[in-house]
Amino acid sequence: MIAAVPDDAEVISASTTDPERFTELYRRYAADIHRYVASRLGPDTADDLMVETFLQAFRHRHRYDPARAAVRPWLYGIATKLISRQRRSELRIYRAIARTGIDPAVESPIESATDRLSAEGSARPCETSTARLRLPPVRGQVLPEGRVRARTG
């Protein structure tokens, strides 16, 4: 005899006491949610947002209305909100790039400042090199302490 497949509301209800039961919903709807997100944002972002959709659904499963038998529209609603949030985030990044001319994915302001300071520092001879140039004809050899005092004193 074939066992009856529990409906979505039963799975969510059972997952409150047995969290592993929520994986049934993942198996049922993950591919659909992934296709939906990929059609709007592309395959690279789809993996992350599909996982985030199920994570939020799991965290907020107590809010699910059991009067609705199907979870699919609820999951699509969560995914749609995540897609909107992702698009707004990308828009903010593009506006910041246009305003500053710096792409944070390529170069952070701290890295840029560090690079400029390093370049300025390497352009100036360091103090020890300058001091060596002022030594008498011994040409950078280390002098015994007594000879240094005799030459400077």
Automatic annotation (TrEMBL):
SUPFAM superfamilies the UniProt entry points to: Sigma2 domain of RNA polymerase sigma factors
Domain of life: Bacteria
Alphabetized UniProt keyword annotations: DNA-binding, Sigma factor, Transcription, Transcription regulation
Ranges for domain RNA polymerase sigma-70 region: 25-90
Entry-linked InterPro entries: RNA_pol_sigma-70-like (IPR039425), RNA_pol_sigma70_r2 (IPR007627), RNA_pol_sigma_r2 (IPR013325)
Pfam family, one: Sigma70_r2
Protein name: RNA polymerase sigma-70 region 2 domain-containing protein
